[in-house]
Prior knowledge:
Strand content: 5-15%
Structural class: mainly alpha
Number of helices: 5
Amino acid sequence: MRRDSKNYTSKWIRPEKRARIYKRDNHSCMYCGDSIYDTPDMVLTLDHVVPKELGGGNEHTNLVTACKSCNCSKQDKPLKAFIQVLADRGVDPQDVAKRVRNARRRALPKK
């Protein structure tokens, strides 16, 4: 896994929590399904499933791993609207919903 400043330093979440969310999500984008194991140069980010602008918070149940491309595309769109954007790009909307739902239900791994 890439451990560079792009993946682990951010002022809005502790690096330890960020790393645990990446691990929970198997270092894969919950939106497009790409993984750093298949795409080593992929940059991982965290995304608010419910955007902060719509009342979402920083709790781990509202954060999922997203590749930089998906995170930039989603911006502050509600999940349902972004799933439609992904569907228009050929990503199965049911797969996206299932990945996000399952990630949000999983407990964070221990340190």
